[in-house]
Amino acid sequence: MSYYIGVDIGGTNIKVGVVDEAGRIVGEADCPTGADRPQEVVLKDILKAVEDAISAASGVSRADIRAVGVGSPGAVDSEAGVVLYNYNLGWRDFAIGPLMSKALGLPVRLENDANAAALGEVVAGSARGASSAMVITLGTGVGSGFVIDGAIWTGYNSAACEFGHMVIAYGGRPCTCGRRGCFEAYASATGLINMTKEAMEAHPNSGLAELARREGTVSGHTPFAAADAGDPVAQRVVDEYIGYLACGLGNLINGLQPEVISIGGGIGKQGERLLVPLRRKVEEETFGERREGEKMTRLVSCTLGYKAGLIGAAMAARR
Amino acid sequence: MSYYIGVDIGGTNIKVGVVDEAGRIVGEADCPTGADRPQEVVLKDILKAVEDAISAASGVSRADIRAVGVGSPGAVDSEAGVVLYNYNLGWRDFAIGPLMSKALGLPVRLENDANAAALGEVVAGSARGASSAMVITLGTGVGSGFVIDGAIWTGYNSAACEFGHMVIAYGGRPCTCGRRGCFEAYASATGLINMTKEAMEAHPNSGLAELARREGTVSGHTPFAAADAGDPVAQRVVDEYIGYLACGLGNLINGLQPEVISIGGGIGKQGERLLVPLRRKVEEETFGERREGEKMTRLVSCTLGYKAGLIGAAMAARR
Questions:
Q1: ipTM of the complex
Q2: Residues A154 and A295 in one domain
Q3: Predicted structure pTM score
Q4: What does residue A81 show for φ and ψ, rounded to 5 degrees?
Q5: How far is the CA of B129 from the CAs of B120, B146, B157, in angstroms?
Q6: A47 and A163, same domain (yes or no)
Q7: Could you tell me which chain B residue has the CA closest to the CA of A180?
C-alpha cells in the first residue's frame, strides 16, 4: 500500500496525518505551531510529528510513505516549496519544502492551505467526484480554493485563489489586504461580527443585543441564534450578510461555473440554516435563465472540517 | 495539410474563415446575420459562406477540412452544439452544431464567441504560448474568456466566463443582466460613455463637452481625446473609468492569476494610452507584495481584432 503524509499548518497548531490512497486518515499527530520561534526549531517539531503520525498508523511502515504534502497559510511558491510570506505567522522565505524533503528523504509538495482544503473536500468530502469545485471557508477571513479535474488551480505564479480579495463593493469597507470592499470584509465571520455589532449599537434594546449581553460575547453564531428566536434586527443582519455572500458567490458562478461550491469555516457550520436562503439569493444573482434540467452549481456544506486541509495536502503530494 | 473552418457569429455579420494548423486564415467569406429570419434560412447562408471561404482558400480542397468551429454570442451548450438563448439575436434553442454537422459531414464544435476569441488570442495573437490567459473585450458589454493550457474554460455547464457580470459595486449601476453594480456596467464602452455624458452634463463648459459637441457624438474615444487635449474633467472621467477597470481586473488576478490578460474591444484600441495607467492601478489592486523576479500577470492589448473569434472557433474545433 502507498501512503502520503499531510501537514496542515495553522495559526496555533500543526496537524499531521498519514493518509491512504482513498483520502482516509490512518494515523495522526500534532504539535504547537510556535511560529515566532526560529524556522529550524519549527521544522524539528514538524519532523517529530511526522514520525509520531507514522507510529500512530497501525500497519504502516516508513517505507510505505510515498510523499509529503504541506498546506501553509500565506503566499507560497509551490514550485520551489517556499512559504514566501505569511503576515499572521510572521514567516518570510521559509524553504519548508526543500528542508523537509532533505530531512525525510521524500518528495514534498507545498500548497496554500485553503487550496489544499479544497482538494481534500474534492477527493474525500463534500465535493467528492466533482469535475470542478470551489471551497469557500468563512472564518476570520474568506479562504478559497478551486480544483479542476482533481488538480488545484494555482495560476501562473501559484498565488491564485485569493477570491476573498475580490472587491464586491467599490470603495466599501476597508480590508486587511489594503483594498476596500473585498468579499472577505463582508462575508467572513469577522465581517458578520462587525455588521452584528453595528446593529447592536443602533438597536441596543433588540433581542440581538440582549442575547449578546447574556452570552457576554458576539460570534458569527449570535445573529443566527437571535434571528431564530424571532428578533427582526438580527434577521436583517442575517439577510444583509447573506446578500453580500450571495453576491460574491454569484460572481464566482457567473465567472467559473464550478460543479460544486462547498461552504466551510465557522459560519459554514450553520449548514442548511445558511444554505437554504443562500441558494435562493444566489439563484437571483447568477446569469442566465433557469431551465428544466439546466446544470447548476451545487451549493453544499463542507464535511471534513479541519481534516480537509490535512487530507488535501496529502493528496496534492500524490500527483 | 489539415484545415479548420471558423465561424464567428456577430450581431450584423457572420464571418467565416479557413484556418490552418498554426491559426493563420487562408480564406475568408461572410454573410449578413439576419438573425430575425427563420433558423433554417440563417443556416443556409452560413453553409454557403463556408463553401465560399473554402473556394477563396487557394490550394485548399474540401477534403482538407477536418472540423468546423462556431463562435456564437449568448448562452451555448457546447456539448449539444445548441445556442440556448441569445437576447440580442433573438435566438432560442438553435441546434446549429448538429444541423451544420449533418449538412457538411464534418464535426462541429460550438463555443461562446468571447471564449472563442480568447482562444484565438492564445493560439495566434497577444497571448500566444501563455499557459493561461484571459481575454477581456471592452465593447458594448464586457466579454471575457479564460483559456487554460490551450483549452477554453467553460465550466460545468459551458456557461462560464461571464466575468462581465461580476458585481464590483454592490447596489450600484443597474446592469442589463438584472444585477446591480456589474463590472460590465462600469468597464464597458457603454459604461464609459455613460460616465462621460454625466460629466458633460455636470460640466457643460468643459473641453470634454466642447469636443463632444464638435464631433456631434460621444464615443469611448471622446474622454481619452479630451483628456489628452488637457481637459481636467475628461481626465477625471478617464481616471474614474480606469479605477473601475483596474478593480475588476484586480479581482480576476487575485482569483485566477492568469499568465496574460489581453484587453480588446473598442476601448482596447486605446492601447498603451490605456494600459500604462491601468497597469499602475492594477498593481495597487492586486494582492501580495511586489518582489524582484515575482511572476506577474502581463496586461497586453489584443492583436487579432475581429479575426480572434474566427481563428479561435476554428482552433476550438481542432481539439
A1: 0.91
A2: yes
A3: 0.92
A4: 75, 30
A5: 11, 14, 27
A6: no
A7: B285
